[in-house]
C-alpha cells in the first residue's frame, strides 16, 4: 500500500536517511525499531509530510507523495501521532479531536468517528471539555491517537508512542493499538522500546544510523545477536 | 578582530582632527549645521547599537534617555543658570543612572527580550515624557535657552556646535570600537546569539547588559545635552516623539548592527538623503523615502550594508585551499601537542562532585526526583537511561542551566546550587549540548575564545584567548576552520566544536550530553578517541549516551536513571545485566 | 486633586468606555495578527488612518453617508492587508523584522496621507456628529455609540468564529503548532492571507469610526500605538474579546485620571499598565 523507495532525507546540512526503501502492506502492523539517533522520527515524519525528502520516491496506493505540499498528505489517507504527542494544548480535548477530522473527507463523518474513538478510549468521555495541556501523559497519548483516527486514515503512523510513559500505561496503549489494527487499520510505528514493539507487530524493519539493516518477523529478529548487541551492548 | 592593532582608533582620531579644521575654511553656516546633524545622528545611532546591536536587546526607548539628557541641560542652564559646558557631564550621567535602574529591574525578568523589550522601552519613553510634561521640570510651556551663552569654541556659533558634536561623535566611535574588540564586546555578541548558552559558558550576562545599557544611555544623554542648546527651545512633545527611536533603528539596521561602524554609515547615508530632500519642498517625500528604504533593507539586506560587504570579502578569501582533512588523520598521524593538562590528577577515590537529593520539577512535572550521585575525580562516569528519564535535566541542573528544586550539588567542597550559571562555569564545570548550540554569528575561533576568556581558565586578554582557542581547535582537529562560521560546519564538526569550546575553559568537570548522537561510525570512533584523550589530560567526565558500545568502551562506572530516579550504579558490564535495568530498557526481561 | 461630582464622573466613565471601545476595535486586528500569525503589524495604525481619510474624502467630497463608505473601504483594505502579508511571508520575516518592516510601511503611508490631504487637521462633518441623546443625566453621542456597537459586534463575531467554526479552530491550532496542523490538512499559507486581510479590514472599520469621532491629522497615527498595544497585551494576544476588555479598562482608567487630575496625565496610565504587564504577568507571549 505504501511504497518508500531510496529515500534520502537531510536535517539541514546533516544527512539523516540514506537510500531507505520499505513497504507497508495493507492491514499489517509494521514497526521500525532502532537506537536513538537512527533516524526513525525523520523517516516517519517524511512519510507524514512533515519533512521533505531530498531524493527518492514516496507513494500510497499509487498516488505520488514525494513533491506534495505538507497539508495535502492527510487528504491522501495518512494520519500521524507525532513524537511527544504534540497536542494543541490550549484547545480542549473535543476541539483537538474535531481538528483531527478537519480534512473534507473526514469532516462528513465527524460524529460517527467521535463515537468510535470514545468507545475505544472511554476514559476520554469525562475529559472532553478539559484543555489538552492539563491531561496526564497517558491521557494525552490517548487523545493523540484518537485525533489521528478522526481523520479516517488508510495508514496510521505512530512515532515513539511509549515515550515518557510509565510501563503500565505503555501496556494499555499497545493493547489499544493492537485493537485498532485488528479492526482493519494499517499501522506503522517506530519505537525505541524493542520488546513492546516486536510483541505487537507482524513485521519489522531495523533502522540503524540512517539505513535499513534488517527486516523480518519479530520473533526471528529478536533472536538475532546483532539486535541484542545494538540495544544492550551485550 | 585583531585587538592589538591600534590602526582603527588612530584613523578615527586623524579623521576627526582633519574635520576639526573645517570651520577655518569659512564655509557658510549651512554646512556646519549639516555636519552637526550627521555627527548628532552618529552619536545616537552608534550609542544605541552598543546595547541593541551588540547584545541584541533592541530598545525603542533611546529617545527617553536622549530626552532626559536634553532636559538635564535645559533645566540646569536654562532655568538654573549653570554654564553650558558644566551641564554636559550630568547630561550623560543622569540618563546612565536611569538606564541602570531600569535595566536592574527589567534584565532580571527572563521573558522580556526581543519585541517585548522593545515595547517596554517604548512605554518607558512615554511615561517619562508625561512626567516631564506634567511636573515642574517642564510643566507645559517648554524651556527657553536663548539666554544661555554659547561657549566660544569655534569662530562662529554654528561652528561651535559643529566642533562639540564632532567631539561627541569621535568619543562615541572610539568607545564603540573599544567595546567591540574587548572582552565586554565578545560577551555581548555571545549574549546576542544565545544568552542562555553564554551564561552557562561563563559570561556574566546580567552585569554586561547593564554595562552596555549604561554606556549607551550616557552617550545618548550627551547628544541630548548638546542638542538642547542647538535648538534653544525645548518642548516635551518634540523631544520625546517617536522620531528618535525609530530613526536610530533604521540607521543602524541599514548600516549593520553587528559592527561598531555600521550605525555611523547608516547615519551618514540617511542624513544626507533627508537633507537633500528637505532642501527642496520634498520633506514629505523624504519621509516616504526613508520608509521605503527601511522596507527594502529588511526584505533584501536584513543584516545591513556592512555585513553584506564583509560576507562577500570573506567568501573570496575562504575559497582557498583549506579543505577538511579528516580529524582522524591529523590526530593519529601527527599527535599535536596537547595543551598543558589541568591540575587535577587521577584520584579515583576522591569525590569531585557530589549531588544529594537533587530534584527538579517543571510546573508539577517531576523530571528529577531526589537523586544522589557521586562523581569521582579523574573518572569517566556514564549516565544512561531511556528517554525522559532525567539525564539531560541532571546535566542542566548541575551546569546551572536550570535551578534545582530540591537538593544540593557540591564541587570539591564548594556549593554550586543557587549560584548563577556563569559562576558555576568559573568554578570549573563545562558542558556540551546534545544539539550543538554554537554562537552562530561568531567565528569558530571566537566561539572557543568565549569559554577561554570567561570560564575556569581565566585567560586575561582577547589576544591570549585567541591563542588558547587555536590550541584547542587543533586538539579537536578543527584549526583549518578557525575563521569559518558554525553554519559552514557539518554536524560532526559542530560536535567537535562543542567539545573544543567546553575544553577551552580548562574545566575540572566536563558534562557531555549525547555527543555521539547522529554521527557515522567513523566519526564516532574519532569522538571516542578524543574523549579518551580528554580524560588523559586530567579532566573528569560525565558522559550521557545511548550508544552502548561506546558506553562499555569508555566508562569506568555507569549510573542508570529511570523516570527521574537513580535505578542502578556500578561497572557497566554488571549493571547492564541487572533485571531492573533490562526491564527499564526493554519493558520485559528478555531471555 | 478635586473630586468631581457624580454626574461628571459618570459622564467621564461613559466617555472612557466609548474611547476604550475604539482602542479595542483597533486592537482586535493587531492582536489577532500578533497572536495567530506571529507578525507585529505597526502598519495597522497607518491603514486605519488611511481608511479614516478615505472615509472623510468620500463623505465630505463625495457626499456619501460615512457608514456607507464601509462597503467600499472594507473590501479594499482586505485586499491590501492580504497583499502585504503575502509579501512578508515570501521573505520569511521574524516577528521583530516584521515590526521594523511595517514601521517602514507606516512611514510611507503617512507620507502618502500628508501629500494628498496635507498636515492640516481634518474633521468630518456628518449628520451623525451632532446627534446625541440622553439617558438620565448622561449624554450619549451617536458617533461614539456607533463605535461601541461596532466594536462589540465585531469582537463577538470574531470570538464566535474562532470558538465555533472549523476555520477558527484551524487558525488556533496552526498558531500553536503549524507543522502538526498541516499534517491534519490545515493550509497555513492560505489561512494566513485570509486572516491578514481580515485584520486590515478590521483596521478599516476602526478607521471609519475614527473619522466619525475624532479630528484627523497625519501625526496622530503614532499617538495611538502605545495605548492600543497596552490594550492588546492586557487582553491577551490572539484573543478576540481581550483587546476590547483591555481597551475599556484603559479608557475608563484614563478618563477617571483625567477627571480627577489633569488631562495631560492620561498617557501615564496605559503605559504604566503596559510596563507592569510586561514585567509581572507570567507566561506572556
What does this structure look like?
- The complex is a heterotrimer of chains A (234), B (591) and C (285).
- Chain A is an alpha/beta fold.
- Chain A has 2 domains: 1-69 and 156-166 and 185-234, 3-Layer(aba) Sandwich (Rossmann fold); 78-152, no CATH class.
- In chain A, 35% of the residues lie in helices and 26% in strands.
- In chain A, the strands form 2 sheets. Chain A has a 6-stranded mixed sheet, with helices on both faces. In chain A, strands 2-1-4-5 form a 4-stranded antiparallel sheet, covered by helices on one side.
- Chain B is an alpha/beta fold.
- In chain B, the strands form 3 sheets. A 6-stranded mixed sheet of chain B has the order 8-9-10-5-11-12, sandwiched between helices.
- The N and C termini of chain B lie far apart (62 Å).
- Chain C is built from 11 helices and 2 strands.
- In chain C, strands 1-2 form a two-stranded antiparallel ribbon.
- Chain C is globular.
- Classes of the chains: A alpha/beta (234), B alpha/beta (591), C mainly alpha (285).
- The B-C interface holds B 58, 105-106, 109, 111-112, 114-116, 118-120, 122-124, 126-127, 129-131, 133-134, 140, 241-242, 246, 249-250, 253, 284-285, 287-288, 290-295, 297-299, 302 and C 40, 87, 91, 93, 95-97, 99-101, 103-112, 114-115, 222, 225-226, 229-230, 233, 262, 264-265, 267-268, 271-272, 274-275, 278-279, 283-285.
Provide tags for this entry:
heterotrimer, A: 234 residues, alpha/beta, Rossmann fold, 2 domains, six-stranded mixed sheet, four-stranded antiparallel sheet, 9 helices, globular, B: 591 residues, ABC transporter involved in vitamin B12 uptake, BtuC, 3 domains, disordered C terminus
The profile of the biggest β sheet of chain A is:
6 strands, mixed
Query: Can you count the beta strands of chain C?
Result: 2
Q: What's the main sheet of chain C like? A: 2 strands, antiparallel
Indicate the multimeric state: heterotrimer
Q: Which blocks of ≥5 consecutive residues of chain C have pLDDT under 50?
A: none
Strand content of chain A: 25-35%
> Averaged pLDDT of chain A, please?
84
How is the topology of this model organized?
The complex is a heterotrimer of chains A (234), B (591) and C (285).
Chain A: E1 2-11, E2 14-24, E3 29-33, H1 40-48, E4 55-60, E5 63-64, E6 78-81, H2 93-100, H3 104-107, H4 110-120, H5 137-150, E7 155-159, H6 167-182, E8 186-191, H7 194-200, E9 203-208, E10 211-216, H8 218-222, H9 225-232
Parallel strand pairs in A: 3-8, 3-9, 6-7, 7-8
Antiparallel strand pairs in A: 1-2, 1-4, 4-5, 9-10
Chain B: H1 7-20, H2 29-55, H3 62-79, H4 84-106, H5 114-134, E1 143-144, H6 157-181, H7 183-200, H8 205-231, E2 233-234, H9 236-239, H10 243-255, H11 262-279, H12 283-300, H13 305-318, H14 327-334, E3 351-362, E4 365-376, E5 380-384, H15 391-399, E6 406-411, E7 414-415, H16 421-427, E8 429-431, H17 444-454, H18 462-475, H19 491-503, E9 509-513, H20 521-536, E10 540-544, H21 548-554, E11 557-562, E12 565-570, H22 572-575, H23 579-586
Parallel strand pairs in B: 5-10, 5-11, 8-9, 9-10
Antiparallel strand pairs in B: 1-2, 3-4, 3-6, 6-7, 11-12
Chain C: H1 6-37, H2 43-61, H3 70-90, H4 95-117, E1 132-135, E2 138-141, H5 142-164, H6 166-176, H7 178-183, H8 188-213, H9 225-235, H10 242-260, H11 266-280
Antiparallel strand pairs in C: 1-2
Helix pairs in contact in C: 1-5, 1-8, 1-9, 1-10, 2-4, 2-8, 3-8, 5-6, 5-8, 9-10, 9-11, 10-11
Amino acid at each position: 500500500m505504501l511504497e518508500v523507495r531510496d529515500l534520502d532525507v537531510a536535517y539541514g546540512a546533516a544527512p539523516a536517511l540514506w537510500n531507505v526503501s520499505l513497504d507497508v502492506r495493507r492491514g499489517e502492523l509494521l514497526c521500525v525499531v532502532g537506537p536513538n539517533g537512527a533516524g526513525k522520527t525523520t523517516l516517519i515524519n517524511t512519510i507524514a509530510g512533515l519533512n521533505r525528502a531530498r531524493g527518492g520516491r514516496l507513494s500510497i496506493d499509487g498516488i505520488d507523495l514525494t513533491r506534495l505540499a505538507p497539508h495535502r498528505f492527510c487528504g491522501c489517507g495518512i494520519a500521524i501521532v507525532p513524537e511527544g504527542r504534540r497536542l494543541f494544548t490550549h484547545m480542549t480535548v473535543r476541539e483537538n479531536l474535531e481538528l483531527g477530522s478537519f480534512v473534507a473527507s473526514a469532516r462528513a463523518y465527524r460524529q460517527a468517528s467521535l463515537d468510535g474513538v470514545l468507545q475505544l478510549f472511554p476514559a476520554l468521555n469525562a475529559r472532553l471539555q478539559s484543555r489538552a495541556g492539563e491531561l496526564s501523559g497517558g491521557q494525552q497519548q490517548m487523545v493523540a491517537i484518537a485525533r489521528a483516527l478522526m481523520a479516517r486514515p488508510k495508514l496510521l503512523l505512530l512515532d515513539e508512542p511509549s515515550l515518557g510513559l510509565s510501563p503500565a500505561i505503555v501496556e494499555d496503549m499497545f493493547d489499544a493499538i493492537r485493537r485498532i489494527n485488528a479492526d482493519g487499520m494499517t499501522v506503522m510505528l517506530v519505537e525505541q522500546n524493542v520488546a513492546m514493539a516486536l510483541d505487537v507487530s507482524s513485521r519489522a524493519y531495523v533502522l540503524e544510523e540512517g539505513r535499513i539493516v534488517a527486516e523480518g518477523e519479530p520473533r526471528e529478529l529478536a533472536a538475532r545477536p546483532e539486535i541484542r548487541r545494538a540495544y544492550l551492548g551485550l | 578582530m585583531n585587538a592589538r592593532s591600534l590602526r582603527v582608533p588612530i584613523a578615527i582620531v586623524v579623521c576627526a582632527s582633519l574635520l576639526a579644521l573645517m570651520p577655518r575654511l569659512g564655509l557658510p553656516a549651512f554646512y556646519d549645521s549639516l555636519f552637526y546633524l550627521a555627527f548628532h545622528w552618529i552619536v545616537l545611532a552608534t550609542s544605541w547599537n552598543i546595547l541593541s546591536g551588540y547584545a541584541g536587546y533592541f530598545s525603542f526607548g533611546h529617545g527617553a534617555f536622549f530626552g532626559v539628557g536634553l532636559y538635564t541641560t535645559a533645566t540646569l542652564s536654562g532655568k538654573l543658570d549653570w554654564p553650558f559646558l558644566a551641564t554636559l557631564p550630568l547630561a550623560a550621567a543622569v540618563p546612565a543612572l536611569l538606564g541602570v535602574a531600569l535595566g536592574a529591574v527589567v534584565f532580571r525578568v527572563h521573558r522580556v527580550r526581543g519585541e517585548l523589550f522593545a515595547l517596554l522601552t517604548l512605554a518607558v519613553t512615554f511615561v517619562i515624557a508625561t512626567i516631564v510634561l506634567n511636573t515642574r521640570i517642564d510643566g507645559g510651556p517648554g524651556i527657553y535657552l536663548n539666554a544661555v551663552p554659547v561657549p566660544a569654541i569655534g569662530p562662529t556659533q554654528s561652528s561651535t556646535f559643529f566642533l562639540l558634536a564632532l567631539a561627541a561623535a569621535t568619543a562615541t566611535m572610539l568607545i564603540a570600537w573599544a567595546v567591540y574588540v574587548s572582552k565586554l564586546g565578545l560577551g555581548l555578541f555571545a549574549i546576542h546569539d544565545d544568552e542562555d548558552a553564554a551564561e552557562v559558558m561563563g559570561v556574566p550576562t546580567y552585569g554586561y547588559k547593564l554595562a552596555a545599557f549604561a554606556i549607551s544611555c550616557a552617550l545618548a544623554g550627551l547628544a541630548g545635552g548638546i542638542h538642547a542648546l542647538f535648538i534653544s527651545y525645548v518642548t516635551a512633545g518634540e523631544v520625546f516623539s517617536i522620531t528618535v527611536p525609530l530613526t536610530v533603528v533604521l540607521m543602524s539596521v541599514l548600516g549593520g548592527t553587528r559592527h561598531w561602524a555600521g550605525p555611523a554609515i547608516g547615519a551618514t547615508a540617511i542624513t544626507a538623503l533627508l537633507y537633500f530632500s528637505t532642501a527642496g519642498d520634498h520633506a514629505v517625500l523624504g519621509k516616504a523615502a526613508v520608509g521605503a528604504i527601511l522596507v527594502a533593507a529588511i526584505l533584501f539586506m536584513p543584516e545591513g550594508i556592512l555585513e553584506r560587504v564583509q560576507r562577500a570579502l570573506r567568501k573570496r578569501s575562504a575559497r582557498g585551499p583549506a579543505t577538511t582533512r579528516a580529524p582522524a588523520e591529523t590526530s593519529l598521524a601527527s599527535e599535536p601537542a596537547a595543551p598543558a593538562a589541568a591540575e587535577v590528577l587521577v584520584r579515583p577515590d576522591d569525590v569531585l562532585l557530589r549531588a544529594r537529593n537533587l530534584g527538579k520539577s517543571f510546573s508539577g512535572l517531576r523530571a528529577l526526583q531526589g537523586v544522589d550521585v557521586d562523581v569521582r575525580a579523574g573518572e569517566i562516569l556514564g549516565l544512561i537511561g531511556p528517554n525522559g528519564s532525567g539525564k539531560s535535566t541532571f546535566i542542566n541542573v548541575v551546569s546551572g542551566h536550570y535551578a534545582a528544586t530540591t537538593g544540593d550539588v557540591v564541587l570539591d567542597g564548594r556549593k554550586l546550587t543557587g549560584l548563577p550559571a556563569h559562576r558555576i562555569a568559573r568554578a570549573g564545570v563545562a558542558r556540551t549540548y546534545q544539539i550543538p548550540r554554537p554562537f552562530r554569528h561568531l567565528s569558530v575561533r571566537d566561539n572557543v575564545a568565549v569559554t577561554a576568556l570567561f570560564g575556569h581558565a581565566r585567560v586575561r586578554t582577547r589576544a591570549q584567548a585567541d591563542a588558547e582557542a587555536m590550541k584547542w581547535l587543533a586538539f579537536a582537529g578543527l584549526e583549518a576552520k578557525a575563521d569559518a562560521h558554525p553554519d559552514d560546519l557539518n554536524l560532526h564538526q559542530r560536535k567537535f566544536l562543542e567539545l573544543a569550546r567546553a575544553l577551552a575553559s580548562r574545566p575540572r568537570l566536563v558534562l557531555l550530553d549525547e555527543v555521539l548522537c547522529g554521527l557515522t561510525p567513523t566519526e564516532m570512533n574519532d569522538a571516542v578517541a578524543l574523549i579518551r584523550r580528554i580524560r588523559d589530560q586530567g579532566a573528569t567526565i560525565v558522559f550521557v549516551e545511548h550508544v552502548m558500545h561506546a558506553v562499555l568502551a569508555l566508562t569506568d562506572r555507569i549510573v542508570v536513571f529511570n523516570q527521574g530516579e537513580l535505578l542502578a550504579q556500578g561497572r557497566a558490564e554488571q549493571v547492564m545485566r541487572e533485571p531492573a535495568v533490562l526491564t527499564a530498557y526493554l519493558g520485559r526481561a528478555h531471555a | 486633586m478635586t473630586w468631581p461630582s457624580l454626574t461628571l464622573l459618570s459622564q467621564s466613565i461613559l466617555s472612557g468606555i466609548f474611547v476604550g471601545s475604539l482602542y479595542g476595535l483597533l486592537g482586535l486586528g493587531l492582536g489577532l495578527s500578533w497572536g495567530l500569525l506571529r507578525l507585529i503589524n505597526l502598519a495597522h495604525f497607518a491603514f486605519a488612518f488611511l481608511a479614516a481619510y478615505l472615509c472623510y474624502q468620500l463623505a465630505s467630497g463625495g457626499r456619501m453617508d460615512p457608514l456607507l463608505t464601509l462597503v467600499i473601504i472594507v473590501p479594499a483594505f482586505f485586499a491590501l492587508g492580504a497583499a502585504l502579508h503575502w509579501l512578508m511571508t515570501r521573505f520569511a520575516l521574524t516577528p521583530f523584522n516584521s515590526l521594523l518592516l511595517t514601521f517602514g510601511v507606516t512611514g510611507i503611508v503617512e507620507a502618502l496621507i500628508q501629500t494628498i490631504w496635507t498636515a492640516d487637521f481634518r474633521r468630518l462633518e456628518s449628520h451623525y456628529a451632532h446627534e446625541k441623546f440622553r439617558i438620565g443625566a448622561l449624554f450619549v453621542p451617536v458617533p461614539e455609540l456607533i463605535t461601541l456597537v461596532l466594536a462589540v459586534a465585531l469582537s463577538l463575531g470574531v470570538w464566535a468564529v474562532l470558538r465555533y467554526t472549523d476555520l477558527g479552530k484551524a487558525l488556533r491550532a496552526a498558531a500553536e503548532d503549524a507543522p502538526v496542523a498541516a499534517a491534519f490538512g490545515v493550509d497555513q499559507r492560505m489561512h494566513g492571507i485570509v486572516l491578514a486581510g481580515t485584520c486590515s479590514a478590521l483596521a478599516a472599520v476602526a478607521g471609519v469610526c475614527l473619522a466619525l469621532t475624532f479630528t484627523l491629522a497625519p501625526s496622530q497615527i503614532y499617538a495611538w500605538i502605545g495605548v492600543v498595544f497596552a490594550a492588546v497585551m492586557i487582553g491577551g494576544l490572539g484573543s478576540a474579546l481581550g483587546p476590547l476588555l483591555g481597551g475599556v479598562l484603559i479608557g475608563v482608567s484614563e478618563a477617571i485620571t483625567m477627571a480627577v487630575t489633569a488631562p495631560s496625565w492620561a498617557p501615564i496610565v496605559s503605559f504604566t499598565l503596559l510596563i507592569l504587564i510586561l514585567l509581572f504577568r507570567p507566561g506572556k507571549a
